[in-house]
Amino acid sequence: MHQPLHCADNHDKGGNDVKLDFFGRPSNLHSIWDSGLLGRTGDEEKLFAVYTAELTPKNFRKWSKGSVEDWAEKSHKVAVKVVYGKLPKPPVAINAQYEALGDSVVKEQIERAGARLAAVLNATFK
Questions:
Q1: What CATH number is attached to the domain comprising 86?
Q2: What are the beta bridge partners of residue 21?
Q3: Which three-class secondary structure state does DSSP give residue 20?
Q4: Residue 45 within any structural domain of the chain
Q5: Is the CB of residue 37 less than 8 Å from the CB of residue 106?
């Protein structure tokens, strides 16, 4: 649910029909948001340290608030505003600006997903 295109559809099968070039490789928008952007961000161990640094108790409380429906709606809004809204026109090639914006969204969505999963597990096993 935290991958924005899993909560949105622009009459393009969740981005699967949006063909584009991803740094010299043919791809589609959905694939880029599933794994392409994250695959270009660096070593997993280093990312873990960076991503968990912002998982403070305050952010944990903030990110774990709401219902599953609220979380899905937030991802939908990210898809509309950023994934589709900031996509270069026409969507032919992903540029560095879109990638940088995408990286920040991916990071935030992973952090939110971690906090929300922890909250659900904590509530389940109390």
A1: 1.10.575.10
A2: 26, 93
A3: strand
A4: yes
A5: yes
pTM for the model stands at: 0.86
pLDDT in tens, the chain (126 residues): 999 999 998 999 999 999 999 999 999 999 999 999 999 987 888 888 888 888 889 988 999 999 999 999 999 999 999 999 999 888 789 999 999 999 999 999 999 999 999 999 999 998
Can you give the residue range of the structural domain that contains 10? 4-117
Position 43 in a domain: yes
Cβ-defined contacts of 88-95 (< 8 Å, 24+) = 91/18, 91/19, 91/20, 91/29, 92/20, 92/21, 93/20, 93/21, 93/22, 94/20, 94/21, 94/22, 94/23, 94/32
Q: Is residue 126 part of a domain?
A: no
Q: Identify whether 55 is part of a domain.
A: yes
How many structural domains is the chain composed of? 1
Is 32 exposed, middle or buried, given 0-12, 13-18 or 19+ CB atoms closer than 10 A?
buried
